[in-house]
Write a structure and sequence with these properties.
The chain is built from 15 helices and 6 strands. The chain has a 6-stranded mixed β-sheet with strand order 4-3-5-2-1-6, with helices on both faces. α6 crosses α10 and α7 packs parallel to α10. The N terminus is likely disordered.
Length: about 280
């Protein structure tokens, strides 16, 4: 279960116009009262190769703490998450699907997770989808966040988070259960073929380090949660993060690691930090 929780947890201006022509997942944040620069890096939660580039390791050496979306080494994270895995108001997966679709989902879950849908009938469908992430890769799943945490641990640096587990799960709860279930049904009917194809394309786009291509990819995703709920999953959270990033960076030089889809676009972290008066530069090498 701890592994499942980690998978779920490791479950979005004119100043930026010229800068975003540079393809980089790593950006330096300076100016506007910062005594020392901080860095922000676009991560990917599931990958076949989470090896960190040298430029990332160098930036980690120059900073004094690691800040991820969640405080991944919080000992209470698992308990907090487990308390919120169930749907509310007596809603079940069986109630959200036709009899035929539920049978399809049941057979699919049994085949891929080793237990029947009935055993997890009240679990939020997006969490079940997260349990399936390792099945979407033709390799042993790796995580960039895990690699970042290893270095932070070696350097005996603190790991903090921009959000709590409760807040992040509340964000997902804004996506209707029916929408979540519809996506799980689509996954089951394609027997992961749709999801595998999208993951492979996403990994290719991520490797390009083109943050504008990454945000555009999320907008055209066949997964409705990704493509149609961008304001909830990305934009609103980005706005909330800016003040937190400012306060954290002013306290001490920090390496921020957030999902790469949060960086690009008009409402992306890079643009919002630039509009707030910071110098944000791509680190290409």
């Amino acid at each position: 279960m701890k592994k499942i929780i980690l998978l779920i947890a490791i479950s979005l201006s004119n100043l930026i116009t010229a800068q975003n022509n540079s393809k980089s997942l790593l950006w330096k944040i300076s100016g506007n009262g910062l005594s020392e620069p901080s860095y922000i890096y676009g991560t990917i939660h599931i990958s076949c190769d989470a090896t960190l580039p040298q430029k990332v390791k160098t930036a980690l050496d120059k900073t004094n703490q690691l800040c991820l979306e969640l405080d991944m080494d919080d000992p209470n994270m698992q308990t907090e998450m487990m308390s919120q895995v169930m749907m509310k108001d007596g809603i079940t997966m069986k109630k959200l699907a036709s009899e035929e679709d539920y049978k399809t989902v049941d057979a699919f879950i049994t085949s891929n997770l080793g237990f029947s849908a009935e055993m997890i009938n009240t679990v939020k469908p997006f969490m079940i989808s997260a349990m399936l992430y390792p099945k979407m890769l033709d390799c042993e799943m790796q995580s960039v966040e895990t690699e970042l945490m290893k270095i932070a641990s070696d350097q005996k640096e603190e790991v903090i988070g921009l959000e709590t587990v409760t807040f992040q799960l509340d964000v997902f709860d804004q996506v209707p259960y029916q929408v979540q279930m519809n996506e799980l049904i689509k996954t089951a009917k394609s027997d992961l073929k749709r999801d595998k194809a999208e993951i492979n394309e996403m990994l290719s786009v991520y490797k390009s380090e083109d943050i504008e291509a990454i945000i555009n990819f999320s907008k055209k995703s066949d997964n409705v949660i990704t493509s149609k709920f961008g304001e909830i999953m990305l934009d609103n959270r980005n706005r909330n993060w800016i003040a937190k990033i400012e306060a954290i960076a002013k306290n001490k030089p920090t390496f921020f690691g957030v999902g790469a889809a949060h960086l690009g676009g008009e409402m992306g972290i890079i643009n919002l930090l630039s509009k707030a008066g910071y110098k944000v530069e791509p680190i290409v090498k």
